């Protein structure tokens, strides 16, 4: 199968493709968020809240693509790109005239984390606005600041009131913002800048601020304060994609553990929107999982549900799980290609996925598990309603059954049988003198634990590194 990543980088191609196929079921939420942005008439600041790895960047970048599609003044997207979006969001077009029913919005994406080495956030933020709105000019990585200033004359007025050379001198000083602040009527100059910018390309400006919760604490606080203080134009919407739980910890690093960080953040956010969860069924299909009764994949799905993995964590987990078992499992059927006996097969299908999940989410719990001290994760996951009890028929001895009133059979609990398997593999014994342990028709040797640990290490002879 080869080492293949299922994770999608937020490139324009991937953003459009996932919009087209609604890969994680978020199109409906993008639709309603665009409606919210369209309804705003005054200045507004919105926090999009979700855990790391749950697709916040994808969400805001796809929202920007939709808004860019319906702004006739934005030329970044091709006609083909726009048609892809309109097929998914046709309700934003008047059926009679074919015109957009959305007010034109100028969108800017700002990666706060990528800029948190700057002396002051307002410089990089304003520069990003210049880059994003001056779409007729192509800026390379080593762009010429003089050309930027010549092209975006209003920003020169905003900073200095004079000319581009003056701004360059200010930017070269150690404290450029101190000189800028000293100028009179800076708020009016900022307003003049946006008032001159918007009529050319739209009615409102939306600035998407991403990765704020990953920034250095001082920079994150300074960015929020600068935006609050300087960007007060009624036609600007700020959208912060953040993990609020992490951001409040960042704030407390500046003001102390007893500081009420949530109330502090409420000063900056008019709305706090929790990003709805992704449609994991659609996501499973997008990374190659099909609706199947293959128990290995069912266990994998139960593992990432049990540990509440994010979308990114799920991708990483599934890639590792498939690499470890390699070609020993036929994913279309419950077949395991191994001559190592049914006990090892059982370990590959039902125990290895749990070990990988533990290793990813809680290293201490992983060591408890493999050292025979904690069987609970295995019991919780394998007794899920999704995994049928009949899958564990090999754990039954003659004359035993899982269901009551089975004629001539003694009723046993699945939990007890799984506990016996766990103890047979992981319970503390001297492996050099351990006798073979039998559970039902499975015979666990003193080598079974070592074999499973080898598999989880990804350095076993069954790992699938080749395509």
Give an account of the 3D structure.
With about 475 residues, the protein is of the alpha/beta class. It has helices at about 10-20, 25-40, 55-70, 80-90, 120-135, 145-150, 155-160, 165-170, 175-180, 185-200, 215-230, 245-255, 260-265, 280-285, 295-305, 310-325, 340-360, 365-370, 375-380, 415-425, 450-455; strands at about 45-50, 105-110, 205-210, 235-240, 270-275, 330, 335, 400, 410, 435-440, 440-445. It has 2 domains: about 10-275, no CATH class; about 290-455, no CATH class. The chain contains 21 helices and 11 strands. The protein has a 5-stranded parallel sheet, sandwiched between helices. Helix 17 (about 340-360) packs across helix 19 (about 375-380). The N and C termini lie close together (about 5 Å). About 35% of the residues are buried. The model is unreliable at about 135-165 and about 175-185 (pLDDT under 50).
SSE blueprint:
Blueprint: H1 12-21, H2 27-39, E1 44-49, H3 56-69, H4 79-88, E2 105-111, H5 121-133, H6 145-151, H7 153-159, H8 164-172, H9 176-182, H10 186-201, E3 204-210, H11 217-230, E4 236-242, H12 244-255, H13 261-266, E5 271-274, H14 280-286, H15 295-306, H16 311-325, E6 329-330, E7 335-336, H17 342-361, H18 363-370, H19 376-382, E8 400-401, E9 410-411, H20 414-426, E10 437-439, E11 442-444, H21 448-456
Parallel strand pairs: 1-4, 1-5, 2-3, 3-4, 8-9
Antiparallel strand pairs: 6-7, 10-11
């Amino acid at each position: 199968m080869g080492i293949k990543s299922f994770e999608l980088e937020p490139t324009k191609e991937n953003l459009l493709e996932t919009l087209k196929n609604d890969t994680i079921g978020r199109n409906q939420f993008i639709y309603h968020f665009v409606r919210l942005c369209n309804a705003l008439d005054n200045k507004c600041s919105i926090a999009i809240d979700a855990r790391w790895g749950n697709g916040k960047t994808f969400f805001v970048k796809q929202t920007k693509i939709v808004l860019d599609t319906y702004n006739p003044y934005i030329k970044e997207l091709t006609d083909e790109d726009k048609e892809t979006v309109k097929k998914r969001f046709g309700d934003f077009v008047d059926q009679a005239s074919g015109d957009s029913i959305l007010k034109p919005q100028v969108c800017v994406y700002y990666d706060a984390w990528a800029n948190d080495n700057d002396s002051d956030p307002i410089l990089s933020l304003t520069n990003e606005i210049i880059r994003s709105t001056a779409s007729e000019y192509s800026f390379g990585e080593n762009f010429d600041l003089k050309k930027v200033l010549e092209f975006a004359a209003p920003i020169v007025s905003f900073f200095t009131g004079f000319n581009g050379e003056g701004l360059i001198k200010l930017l070269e000083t150690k404290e450029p913002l101190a000189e800028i602040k000293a100028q009179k009527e800076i708020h009016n100059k900022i307003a003049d800048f946006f008032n001159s910018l918007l009529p050319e390309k739209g009615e409102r400006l939306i600035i998407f601020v991403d990765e704020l919760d990953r920034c250095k604490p001082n920079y994150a606080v300074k960015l929020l304060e600068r935006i609050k203080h300087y960007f007060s134009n009624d036609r600007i919407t700020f959208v912060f994609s953040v993990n609020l739980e992490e951001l409040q910890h960042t704030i407390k690093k500046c003001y102390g553990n007893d500081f009420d960080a949530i109330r502090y953040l409420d000063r900056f956010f008019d709305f706090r929107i929790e990003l709805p969860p992704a449609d994991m069924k659609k996501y499973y299909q997008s990374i190659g999982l099909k609706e199947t009764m293959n128990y290995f994949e069912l266990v994998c799905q139960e593992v990432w549900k049990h540990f509440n993995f994010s979308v990114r964590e799920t991708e990483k987990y599934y890639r590792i799980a498939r690499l470890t078992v390699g070609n020993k499992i036929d994913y279309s059927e419950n077949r395991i290609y191994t001559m190592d006996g049914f006990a090892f097969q059982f370990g590959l299908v039902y125990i290895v996925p749990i070990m990988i999940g533990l290793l990813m989410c809680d290293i201490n719990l992983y060591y408890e598990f493999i050292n025979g001290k904690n069987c609970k994760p295995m019991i919780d996951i394998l007794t899920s309603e999704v995994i049928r009890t009949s899958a564990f028929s090999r754990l039954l001895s003659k004359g035993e059954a899982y269901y009551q009133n089975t004629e001539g059979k003694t009723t046993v609990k699945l939990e007890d049988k799984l506990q016996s398997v766990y103890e047979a593999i992981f319970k503390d014994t001297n492996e050099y003198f351990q006798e073979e342990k039998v559970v039902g028709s499975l015979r666990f040797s003193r080598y079974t634990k070592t074999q499973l640990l080898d598999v989880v290490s990804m350095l076993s002879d069954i790992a699938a590194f080749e395509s």
